[in-house]
Amino acid sequence: MRINSITNTPYTYKPAFASNTRIVRGKDGRLLYRNTTNFFRDDLNWKEFAAFIREKYKNAEKVNVFSYACSDGSEPMSLVILLKEIFGQTSQKFLPVIAKDIDKTVIYFAKSDFVNMDYMDYEVINRYTGGKFDKYFVYPRGGIGFEYEYPVRVNPELNNQIKYSIADINVDTHNITDKNTILFCRNFWPYIKSTEERVDLLHKLTGKLKDNGLLVTGNYDDTVELGKILSEEGFTRVKGLPHVYETN
């Protein structure tokens, strides 16, 4: 999405995840946004989420999954890995994941054969796959550092399940499918300048999600009370799943 300046918010927030961090500033030196991400970010209960969407979409022949502000692809890759491991062949109805970001640099890296990881990423991927890191990535000969990022090769079988492109969600909503849609819009809402602009975007998204849709947000979005705004705009949080919302 296109963001001109960081919002003035009374909250302070430091993400507890940082295997890939990139700060983007405008010509005046002011912060525009951060690309900060890692695998299986812990502000989503991934396994409970998988169980929920299995039930919600059990009768759907095709489920459309979009990931905006996808950064380097760590999050859509996490989702594909989860679907593959838990759903097996049934995962194909959720694929490919359509992943988009306004930042052409991170999309360039996402489309490459490598992704930056630290050892925490390696451990969490093994945890969600039962030790099958090598099924999705090539473990580097030099190992993965504890205190620094290391470029790790992504296996084509994983990369091919994600379609990356550059897009601003504010002008791209017409490309979101309006039935059986899961929309990841996580941890970018504070970079939208005002509540009015957040509400305007939600109005656009509501129409796309009213037919069995799902909206997924993140911890950072709580700093602008996005949950309250979502409730006022007709969204209901899924019981037991913070940051996951359905339309009423």
Gyration radius, to the nearest Å? 17 Å
Biggest sheet descriptor: 7 strands, mixed
Strand content: 15-25%
- The structure class reads alpha/beta
Number of strands: 12
Describe the structure.
This protein is α/β, with parallel strands linked by helices. It contains nine helices and twelve strands. The protein has helices at about 45-55, 75-85, 105-110, 120-130, 135, 155-160, 170, 195-210, 225-230; strands at about 20-25, 30-35, 65-70, 95-100, 115, 135-140, 150-155, 160-165, 180-185, 215, 235, 245. The strands form three sheets. A seven-stranded mixed beta sheet has the order 8-4-3-9-10-12-11. The chain has a three-stranded antiparallel beta sheet with strand order 5-7-6. A hairpin with a 5-residue loop joins strand 1 (about 20-25) and strand 2. The radius of gyration is 17 Å and the shape is globular. The two termini are about 25 Å apart.
Topology readout:
Layout: E1 20-25, E2 31-37, H1 46-56, E3 64-68, H2 74-87, E4 97-101, H3 104-110, E5 114-117, H4 119-129, H5 133-136, E6 137-138, E7 150-154, H6 156-159, E8 162-166, H7 169-172, E9 181-185, H8 195-209, E10 214-216, H9 226-232, E11 235-237, E12 244-247
Parallel strand pairs: 3-4, 3-9, 4-8, 9-10
Antiparallel strand pairs: 1-2, 5-7, 6-7, 10-12, 11-12
